[in-house]
Amino acid sequence: MRSIRFIVLFAACVILHSVVQAADLTPEQEKFRSNIIQFLKEEGFSPTIDEDDNSVNFKKEGTLHWIAISDSNPFYLEFHRVGLKCNNADRKALLAAVNYGNRKVRCAKAMLGDSSISFAIEMYCHSAEEFRYVFYKCLKELNSMHKTVSDYYNEHPDGGETASDPFTVSSVSIANTDSESHIITSYGSKIYSGRTQYLKPKIYMNTTRTGTYDIYVKFYTPTGLSTSSNANSPAGYSYKDAVTVSATGFQAHELSGWGGNDPGHWKKGEYRFEFYYKNKMIAKKEFTVY
127: buried, middle or exposed (CB in 10 Å: 19+, 13-18, 0-12)? Predict the structure, then answer.
């Protein structure tokens, strides 16, 4: 378990800024940069020049971007988006997130430094006119890379792609029980409204690691999500159960039932259980109460 499980925006520009050195631009490069600046102004941005490295800086919706220019005929561009600073992060998980992003996003690339991740697109352009045609596509790809990497990191707290979830759910069945979990209607049988009390799911799992895992449950009735203040429903869920896995392999686990003591508690209609582990839906079961 990592000591921290999130990534925060790194607002400073010290993240692997650009390999281009702060050399003076040639007249040809300066003209190209001026054309880029003019284009950005026409599009409603407020570009500035970073005197340290001669890059063109601008913000889109508060997010810093910069463009570094070198070479000519064609010009070599590095188009950057502000990256991510990783506080007390698992480096193996970071590397997995970066590798995943580089596989999934076509044009942009993610680069892992000592304490941050940077995002950039590298390209050759013969003219500023060529750059105009790809500018918004570049913004989209950089944002996609940022989201892909950060989402993957946050969804894989135990080491990214090198460590899969500790279990998968192959199927779910539902029984109708009383408050003591005595079976009224067996798992997999038709459930009739007049006999309903507690609808109790059983999940069939293939486990790869032992441990205790919190399974969050959403129970939907014909009128929507069912929650209870008396049962201390977690925010956005009906309830949660802690499932203890003591051995690996295929096995079944019964979760708590949801309902009430009065027979006929649930009306006729369509119902659905959804099951979540670490904010990701791992299974669902739709069924009918007759």
Answer: exposed
- Domain pair 8-162 / 167-289, same fold: no
Instruction: Give the span between the Cα atoms of 97 and 2, in whole angstroms.
Output: 15
Fold assignment, 167-289: Immunoglobulin-like (2.60.40)
Left if phi > 0, otherwise alpha if psi is -120 to 50, otherwise beta: which for 11? alpha
- The pTM score is 0.51
> What are the residue ranges spanned by the domains of the chain?
8-162, 167-289
Q: Helix or strand or coil: residue 51?
A: coil
Tell me the per-residue pLDDT of 238-289, one tens digit each, with 9 for 90 and over.
Answer: 999 999 988 888 899 999 999 999 999 999 999 999 999 988 899 999 999 9
Cis peptide before 74 (omega within 30 of 0): yes
Is the domain spanning 8-162 CATH 3.50.50.60? The answer is no
Q: Could you give the CA distance from residue 53 to residue 229 in angstroms, rounded to a whole number?
A: 58
**pLDDT tens by residue, 103-123:** 889 899 999 988 889 999 999
Give the containing element (helix H, strand E) for 288.
strand 280-289
- Distance between CA atoms of residues 99 and 94, nearest Å: 9
CA-to-CA separations, 108 to 119, 216, 285, in angstroms, rounded: 7, 36, 39
Q: What does the alpha-carbon distance between residue 82 and residue 66 come to, in Å, rounded to a whole number? A: 8
**CA–CA dist 284, 169 (Å, integer):** 9
DSSP state of 222: T
